[in-house]
Amino acid sequence: MSDLHEECGVFGIYSETKKDVAWDVYCGLFSLQHRGQEAAGIAVNEDRNICYHKGLGLVHEVFDRDELSRLGQGQIAVGHVRYATTGDGDVRNAQPMVVRHIKGQLAVCHNGNLVNSKELRSELELKGCIFHTTSDTEVISYIITQKRLVTPSIEEAVCEAMKEIRGAYSLVMMSPAKLIACRDPWGFRPLCMGRTPDGDIVFSSETCGLDTIGAEFIRDIKPGEIVVVDEKGIRSITTHCDEQKPALCVFEYIYFARPDSVIEGMSVHESRKLAGRYLAKSHPVDADIVVGVPDSGLDAALGYSEEAGIPYEMGLIRNKYIGRTFIAPEESGRGGQVDLKLNAASAVVKGKRVVLIDDSIVRGTTSARIVRMLKNAGAKEVHMRISSPPFLHPCYYGTDVDSDKGLIAKSHTVEEICDIIGADSLGYLSMEDALHLVTDRAPDTFCAACFKGDYPA
Question: How many H-runs (helices) and E-runs (strands) does the chain carry?
Fold first, then answer.
C-alpha cells in the first residue's frame, strides 16, 4: 500500500411521498465517491419491501438507468460506497447489508470499523449464526437483528446493540417503515442531516452529499445519537450521548473529506488552507513557486502560498479519468498508476525552486515518484511540506492501516525520509497545529491515534 486507504460513505433519504428515491441516493453517492471506490449499492423500500442492487466498481459502473428503474419507487432508500477496511473486496461484502428476519427486514450501511468485531463474530458463530461475508457490517446486522427479536422497535434494538458494538461506526439503516441514522459515542466518522425543498429528510457522510440533491444542511448527528425518521416525524434518542469524550478523526479534515464539505461547523477547505499557513510559518523556505499534489494537497498549497507570499502554480496536472492511486487492489497495480494519474507541467516547474505540498507520507512510494517526476521535468529544487504530522501508528477506525509495518516514519527520521524520497528538504505539520485545524473545537476532542498512538476505543 503506497498511501492511505479510505473508509466508506453512507447516504439515506426519507420522503413522505412515493418517488424515485433511488435517483437521489445515486446522486448522493456520486458526491461521496471519494470515500470508497471498490463497491456501491442502493436499497429502496417499496411498499414495505426492500429491493436492492449492489456490485463492485464505481457508482456509475454499478448503476445505469435500467438498474435504477428496476429498484422502483419508494419512500425510503439508503446507499453506500465502499473501500474494504474490514473484509476483502468480494461483492458479497458490498453494502447495503440486507437482512430478512421474522419481524421484518433491515438494510444497513456502515462507515467505520469495529475494534471488537472478531470477538463478537466468534460469540455469534457459537450461537449458530452463519456468516456469508467477512465484513464487520454483517456482525452489526446480526446483533441489531437479535436485539430486534426481543425489543418493541427497531430503534430500541439499535440502542441495545450500541451497548455491545465498539469502535467507529456511522450507520444509516432502513426498516420497512423507518429511516435510522446513528453515530458511535466517540463520533469518529462524520454524519449529517439535511432537508430537501420538498421536505425529504436526508442523511449523508458529508455535506457535499446534501448539496448534490439540493438539500439544506440541518445539523450534524451527535456522537452516540440515534435519529429516527418515519411517518410520525423526526425524533432523537440520546441514551448513548456523552458516554465518551468526542474523538472525531482529524484526518477527515486533512485528507478524507471533500474540500467543499463542512464538518462540525468547519469548512474542510478552510481547515486545509490553515494547515498550509501553519506549514509556511513553521517550515519556511526560499522558493519560486508552491505546487500542491492533486487533489487533497491543493488547499494546503494555497494556504502556504498566501502565508509565504510565494506564487501558487499548477505544477502537477491530474488525469481526472484515473481514480485515486491507492484504490488499485494489488500492489503491482499502484506503481505505474502514479505516472498515469499525474504529470508534471515542465513549462511551470523548469528551473524553479518548488515547494511541494501533500497531505501525508505513509510509505513513501508515491512521494518519491512525484519528487522524481518534478525533477525530471526540470525543477531545480523540490522542498516537500506535509500538511499532517508523521504517520507513526496503525489506525483501527476505518483507514485500513491496521499495522505499523511499512510506515516509513516509524523506522526513519525526517532527514532519512527526505533522503529516501529525493527531496531537498522535508517538513511536517506539528501535532499542536494539526489539532488546531478546527478553530472552535478543543484540541483534545480529536482522534489523532495515527500520530500519537493513544487510542480512544
Answer: 17, 23
